[in-house]
Automatic annotation (TrEMBL), chain A:
Tagged with keyword Methyltransferase: yes
UniProt protein name: ETFB lysine methyltransferase
GO-annotated biological processes: methylation
Keywords carried by this UniProt record: Methyltransferase, Transferase
GO molecular function, one term: protein-lysine N-methyltransferase activity
From TrEMBL, chain B:
Record-annotated Electron transfer flavoprotein alpha/beta-subunit N-terminal domain positions: 23-216
Species of the source: Plectus sambesii
Subcellular location: Mitochondrion matrix
Annotated keywords: Electron transport, Mitochondrion, Transport
Entry keyword Acyltransferase: no
Family of the protein in this entry: Belongs to the ETF beta-subunit/FixA family.
Gene Ontology cellular-component terms listed: mitochondrial matrix
Protein name: Electron transfer flavoprotein subunit beta
Xref: Pfam families: ETF
Length: 231, 254
């Protein structure tokens, strides 16, 4: 892990070029040689944590702008990646933040980013458990779940929806916040039908993405934050 | 607007192609393949139309053997939203002709509504330059071949500039239409790490020619594939004097 931490610090740059410039994050950006690399040239496999995905940017912006909704709450950041939403939830005064990602390097990157932003980690509980496999045994069920850009694959989205539905059935007042730039599983009728899990989504806000984010992600020009309700 | 882009897996343009000993074709095993360069240009144009909000969705399609999926992943990493692989076995792929691809695409377009098709002007392996033209014919859509510039003209038409011998030809086509991309249309982007990662998760649908009711029956037969004639070696001359006398000897100058 020490070697991995060193690798992260050596191969990323600190960036404030995103929707939450009050946060500086270690990222692989256009300025890094790895930006033009292929995944197999990267010793840490599929470094999702090295990018600040459009959906995560919008969700994190929303948390920072609506901090009171997270104060004293227990919050689960599902698929934390670089950890921006976790940092925002801690900053907003959440009681506990369960920071979850199946990739240990994402947890490491999140810890490094906490330190860089002087965010205390005493309220964060890190876990690499795959919650999709734990059959809903998430205890205690948090007050809010954060999902930044997690709906990029139809089958995977289906698994997450089924987990969310189960959790909300057990705890109806649980809030589900989603940040998403209009990826197919959440937005296209054919994919939603294939998944077959009914839910309603309430649009909370739509953030225009900065030009360079649009360019990096080939065409997404805005990212939205939704509250999901499974009925 | 939904845009369909055809992408073909071909031997990489930088590879020195070798003819098989029995002259039935070229050596393809263990040879680097990549997306046909003109198709890269076609795809780039479609993605730019999407970035300009003119297109809503870009779908890449490839007809070919299993390995064509690599080419489709590249297309997804370059910005296509989804991919369709019309799979044929390696032997059938060898026999497949532009007319078969055009028929498959025509059926696909009938099934799923598209407003624009962009193809490369030709594939660099067979240099056939037929698919776009035949597709437009099958669909009875207008065609604009060898485009070097594409601009919207209202919401129903496109203005397409074509490079022709000694000048430019600008035409207006009504949508839906078929366009083929020429070299100077744009400079395709390189796929970046985050986009390659994302591309692995984008939808890739698998089909067969039979799904479109198309039978791969060749209309032509390859008689022989041979190397280009070897150029004869030149000679070195010592100075201008001997150059002039050599040229005179050969009757090149009086
Ligand atoms: C596209 S990234 C989003 C990261 C971050 N939320 C953001 O918006 O920048 C997806 C993340 O989900 C993680 N992930 C994938 N499957 C997971 C699972 N079953 N449980 C938790 N995290 C998972 C990946 O490791 C990756 O960090």
């Amino acid at each position: 892990m020490r070697a991995a931490a060193k690798w992260i610090l050596r191969n990323t740059i600190t960036s404030r070029h995103h929707l939450t410039p009050e946060m500086s994050l270690a990222l692989i950006t256009e300025q890094c040689p790895l930006w033009m690399a292929t995944p197999d040239q990267c010793p840490l496999p599929d470094p999702y944590w090295a990018f600040y995905w459009p959906g995560g940017q919008a969700l994190t912006r929303f948390i920072l702008d609506n901090g009171s909704q997270f104060r004293d709450k227990s919050v689960l950041d599902f698929g934390c990646g670089c950890g921006a939403s976790t940092i925002a939830a801690v900053t907003a005064g959440a009681r506990t933040v369960f920071c979850n990602d199946i990739d240990n390097y994402a947890l490491l990157a999140t810890a490094l980013n906490c330190r860089r932003n002087n965010v205390l980690m005493s309220t964060i509980e890190f876990s690499n458990e795959n919650l999709l496999l734990s059959e809903g045994k998430i205890t205690p069920i948090p007050d809010a779940i954060l999902l930044g850009d997690m709906f990029y694959d139809t089958d995977f989205a289906g698994d997450i929806f089924r987990l969310l539905r189960r959790l909300q059935l057990d705890k109806p007042e649980m809030d589900i916040f989603v940040g998403d730039p209009d990826r197919h599983p959440l937005n296209e009728e054919v994919h939603r039908k294939r998944i077959g899990v009914q839910f309603e989504r309430e649009l909370l806000i739509d953030y225009p993405l900065p030009g360079y984010v649009t360019r990096e992600h080939y065409g997404f020009s805005s990212a939205k934050v939704y509250r999901l309700l499974f009925v | 607007m939904r845009v369909l882009v055809g992408v073909k897996r071909v031997i990489d343009y930088a590879v020195k192609v070798r003819v098989k000993a029995d002259k039935t074709g070229v050596v393809k095993d263990n040879v680097k393949h990549s997306m046909n360069p003109f198709d890269e240009i076609a795809l780039e144009e479609a993605v730019r139309l999407k970035e300009k909000k003119i297109a809503k969705e870009v779908v890449a399609v490839s007809c070919g053997p299993t390995a064509s999926q690599e080419t489709l992943r590249t297309a997804l990493a370059m910005g296509a939203d989804k991919a369709i692989h019309v799979e044929v076995d390696a032997a059938t792929a060898e026999k497949m002709e532009p007319i078969h691809v055009a028929k498959i695409l025509a059926k696909l377009i009938e099934k799923e509504k598209f407003d624009l098709v962009i193809l490369g002007k030709q594939a660099i392996d067979d240099d056939a330059n037929q698919t776009g033209q035949m597709l437009a014919g099958f669909l009875d859509w207008p065609q604009a071949m060898f485009a070097s510039k594409i601009e919207p003209d209202g919401s129903t038409h496109l203005k397409v500039t074509r490079e022709i011998d000694g000048g430019l030809d600008t035409i207006k086509v009504k949508l839906p239409a078929v366009i083929s991309a020429d070299l100077r249309l744009n400079e395709p982007r390189y796929a970046t790490l985050p986009n390659i990662m994302k591309a692995k998760k984008k939808p890739l649908e698998k089909k067969t020619p039979a799904d479109f009711g198309v039978e791969i029956k060749p209309q032509t037969e390859t008689v022989e594939v041979s190397d280009p004639p070897v150029r004869q070696a030149g000679i070195m001359v010592d100075d201008v004097q001997s150059l002039v006398s050599k040229l005179r000897e050969k009757g090149a100058i009086p």
